[in-house]
Amino acid sequence: MPPQTLPARPGKWLWTCRAGFEPHLYEELAWAGADPRLLGEALVESEGRQGLAPAFARQGFRVLASLRQGALEPLATAVGEAVAALPPAAPLVLQAFTPDTPQGNALTAEAEALREAVRARLPASRLLAEEERAREAGALLVSLCMAPGITVVGAVPAREALSLAAGGRRRMRRAGESPSRAAMKLEEALDALPFEPGRGEVCVDLGAAPGGWTQRLVARGAKVIAVDPARLMPELASHPRVQHVRESAFAFAPDEPVDWLFCDMAWRPLEVAQLLAKWGRRGWASHLVANIKLPMKDKNPILLRVRHTLTEDGGWKGLTVRQLYHDRDEVTVMAHRR
Ligand SMILES: C[S@@+](CC[C@H](N)C(=O)[O-])C[C@H]1O[C@@H](n2cnc3c(N)ncnc32)[C@H](O)[C@@H]1O
Question: Where are the domains of the chain?
Fold first, then answer.
């Protein structure tokens, strides 16, 4: 790890990740031939590549400028000049974040002050009012990444961004009625999809207990077949749209194909991937959202095999693999059959 955060070079890409996962992100980028360079905690730079979407990156953008930390007003002016040089056609969404580390998080208030000072320097007509519509509006996400000693300014089209949240740090307030923290992982995964399970659709939830995911699916009006030998929350076990199958997911087969397959089983990744591939091959579900546990040191070789199993053996298409903000030693995979 460099003793001080290194400046990112204009024209390169800056990626941010969960702290401690820099080696995995670096390795992924090296395997993709993108010539990575570790800049500091939670920050890796690389060459840009069409369609590059590393699993261990929370957010990535093309670097416009790296500026040494200094007084707020001159820094805001320099950032404002870099932002003003962006193509005028696209509306802008201005975001500030810090690396997700104790040192980075100590800069949160300063980063927010910088964002406000830069915002004040830009004509209001350039900024998108409804930020949640960034993709539909063809907006550019402008990121101000404030790290110890350096602020990096960069941009990425919202449609190509790994996340719409600043630095991919998709914070969510825990829903009051939610039975488990895992529910937030599902909410974040569904956020990334263009559509989600709706009223009357049938979902199978493998490894469902105690029921965080099942609860979020039921709340959307879906019917859920919850497969887990362990107990579900009592209100879910007796819910009219929940069927609890108390057996191993490896023994379970649906009576007929379902709309969605969800899986958050605490089990070995390659065996889970083979199970999900079986569902794909047999056409048992149209959409897949699964959390794959990666407790081992060497994560990328396992991920490569998981990807291969899902696509080559399982026929799952449009596969995305992402370590979401709420994922710890795990990644979330999403795919569909057609
Ligand atoms: C991380 S928890 C799932 C949390 C759940 N998604 C929620 O939101 O509440 C993992 C679950 O996987 C289940 N599990 C492990 N092996 C399984 C198997 N072979 N078949 C079904 N469930 C399994 C465990 O019983 C445990 O309840």
Answer: 13-168, 182-336
Distance CA 187, CA 126 (A): 31
- What is the per-residue pLDDT across 220-246, written as a single tens digit (0 to 9) for each? 999 999 999 999 999 999 999 999 999
* Cβ(103) – ligand 1 distance below 6 Å: no
Ligand 1 pocket: which of 224, 264, 292, 330 to mutate (most atoms <8 Å of CB)? 264
What global pTM score does this model have?
0.95
pLDDT at 307 over 80: yes
CATH architecture of the domain with range 13-168: 2-Layer Sandwich (3.30)
Fold that domain 182-336 belongs to in CATH: Rossmann fold (3.40.50)
Residue among 321, 297, 298 nearest 309 (CA): 321
Give nearest CA residue, ligand 1 atom 27. 209
